[in-house]
């Protein structure tokens, strides 16, 4: 019975993906639209063109390209990467950034760098993801020649120019405005949000790996200093995230005794954090053996919310040590009632409400407590957790029992997705503390929900060895 359900769900997802979500440009697949537009029985669109969900978002294409890599469809991935590179901004103020999304209109590509987006938010993650995807593509396909092309190396240099320039801040983190990543609306995620920092870490190491491939070739020797600068930055960022973002019950107890108003170099409380900022829910949430990377660190204002994607990427890119990854998985199992509920996985926990919601979201009705980005549940996130767990359990095979519970959670997440998503029309996200409701404003037939399920299926049932597909070079390999 469950085998039949599995076949049906996989078949349905595959045909939606290949026949309706992927689009062509210049005779080759170039990526997938964010959501498949619903048509009425007469074949006409059921509603007016759906905002920008008919565009190709770089971030939504991360699972798409990852899945295509697992299927050996390398030329489509290469075409996507080349097309994004063509759209890398060369405007003086934004030089080097990649667009949030693009669309073809009458043979022309039109890109959105934020100048057309709701609320005019900018996306920073797209730029970081491009570098990581180039590295993943080269690793998986073996097409080193792609990375060795002068225009690809030039694109990388434009990216590095954005990161490695002088600034007013000493910290190695990348400072961004609100809504600069998957959470693309105000949710008090400005400053140094976790997702951006771990992506930056992955992108710096990927850029270093890609530069190293070219450095032995004529015309590229001058990259030596840049390579060193990139590695140094990644190293500082790693130390910084370990110091300020990683928390356990023990680190919180140290923090609770912090002195304040300290000045100078050798001090404990550099960001002048008042202990009242440590929220009550943290005690039971952390348990005594769990740990995670907090959402943000800013002067006097740490954000203790748990952000699922940032933490999964922190594990996948080895910002976290093996032991820390085990602590993270333990924390996720411990809090599965909140995080997985009836539809995995919650994007962040806990939701903000009351006056906090009013002020921090600007009364955003799409982000009501427990909805959408503010604690909604997004099935597109589960494969990141699966990849993080499976790559870690493969490298720590002697310690099999440590992964039993998290593997059970992955299996039950898979089953929920298999049984629910086709019936719920592959909804974008789910609302409420139990995640029992399809999101109030959720799109249906959302591509990363569909392809997220295909990736879960691939990693859990077909080829777990692909869990390392987004591996970035290890910092130790450069030191
Ligand atoms: C929403 C999401 C964003 C996603 C876009 C397209 O705006 O918040 O993360 O990229 O939809 O699916």
Written account of the structure:
The chain is mostly helical and 479 residues long. It has one domain: Alpha/alpha barrel (Glycosyltransferase), CATH 1.50.10.10. Helix content is 45%, strand content 7%. It has helices at residues 2-21, 61-70, 74-86, 125-141, 144-148, 150-163, 194-215, 224-244, 249-255, 281-286, 308-316, 322-334, 336-339, 354-361, 382-395, 404-420, 447-462; strands at residues 22-25, 28-32, 56-57, 101-105, 108-112, 246-248, 291-293, 306-307, 348-349, 430-431, 437-438. The strands form five sheets. A three-stranded antiparallel sheet has the order 3-4-5, with no helix packed on it. Strands 1-2 form a two-stranded antiparallel ribbon. Strands 6-7 form a two-stranded antiparallel ribbon. A hairpin with a 5-residue loop joins strand 10 and strand 11 (437-438). Helix 7 (194-215) runs antiparallel to helix 8 (224-244) and helix 16 (404-420) crosses helix 17. The chain is globular. The N and C termini lie far apart (53 Å). Bound molecules: alpha-D-glucopyranose (GLC).
């Amino acid at each position: 019975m469950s085998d039949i359900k599995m076949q049906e769900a996989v078949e349905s997802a595959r045909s939606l993906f290949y026949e309706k979500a992927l689009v062509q440009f210049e005779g080759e697949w170039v990526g997938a639209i964010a959501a498949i537009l619903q048509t009425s029985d007469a074949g006409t669109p059921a509603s007016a063109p759906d905002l920008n969900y008919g565009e190709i978002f770089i971030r939504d294409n991360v699972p798409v390209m990852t899945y295509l890599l697992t299927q050996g469809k390398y030329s489509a991935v290469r075409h996507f990467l080349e097309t994004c590179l063509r759209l890398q901004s060369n405007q003086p103020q934004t030089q080097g950034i990649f667009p949030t999304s693009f669309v073809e209109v009458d043979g022309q590509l039109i890109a959105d760098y934020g100048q057309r987006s709701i609320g005019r938010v900018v996306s920073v993650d797209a730029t970081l993801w491009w570098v990581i995807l180039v590295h993943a593509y080269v690793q998986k396909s073996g097409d080193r020649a792609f990375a060795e092309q002068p225009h690809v190396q030039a694109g990388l240099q434009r990216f590095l120019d954005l990161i490695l320039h002088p600034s007013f801040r000493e910290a190695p983190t990348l400072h961004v405005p609100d809504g600069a990543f998957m959470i693309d609306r105000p949710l008090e995620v400005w400053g140094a949000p976790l997702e951006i920092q771990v992506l930056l870490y992955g992108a710096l190491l990927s850029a270093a790996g890609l530069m190293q491939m070219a450095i032995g070739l004529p015309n590229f020797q001058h990259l030596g200093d840049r390579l060193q600068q990139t590695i140094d930055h990644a190293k500082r960022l790693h130390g910084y995230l370990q110091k300020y973002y990683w928390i356990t019950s023990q680190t919180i107890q140290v923090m609770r005794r912090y002195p304040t108003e300290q000045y100078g170099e050798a001090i404990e409380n550099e960001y002048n954090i008042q202990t009242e900022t440590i929220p009550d829910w943290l005690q039971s949430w952390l348990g005594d053996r769990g740990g995670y990377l907090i959402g943000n660190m800013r002067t006097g204002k740490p954000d203790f919310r748990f952000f699922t994607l940032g933490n999964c990427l922190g594990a996948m890119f080895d910002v976290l040590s093996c032991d820390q990854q085990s602590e993270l998985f333990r924390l996720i199992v411990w809090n599965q009632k909140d995080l997985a509920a009836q539809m995995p996985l919650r994007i962040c926990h806990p939701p903000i409400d009351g006056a906090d919601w009013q002020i921090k979201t600007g009364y955003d009705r799409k982000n009501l407590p427990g909805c959408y980005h503010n604690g909604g549940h997004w099935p597109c996130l589960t494969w990141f957790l699966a990849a993080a767990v499976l790559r870690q359990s493969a490298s720590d095979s002697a310690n099999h029992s440590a992964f039993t519970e998290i593997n059970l959670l992955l299996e039950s997440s898979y089953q929920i997705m298999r049984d629910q998503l086709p019936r719920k029309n592959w909804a974008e996200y789910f609302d409420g503390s139990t995640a029992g409701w399809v999101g109030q404003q959720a799109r249906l037939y959302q591509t990363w929900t569909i392809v997220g399920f295909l990736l879960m299926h691939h990693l859990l049932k077909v080829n777990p060895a692909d869990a390392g597909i987004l591996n970035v070079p290890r910092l130790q390999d450069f030191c």
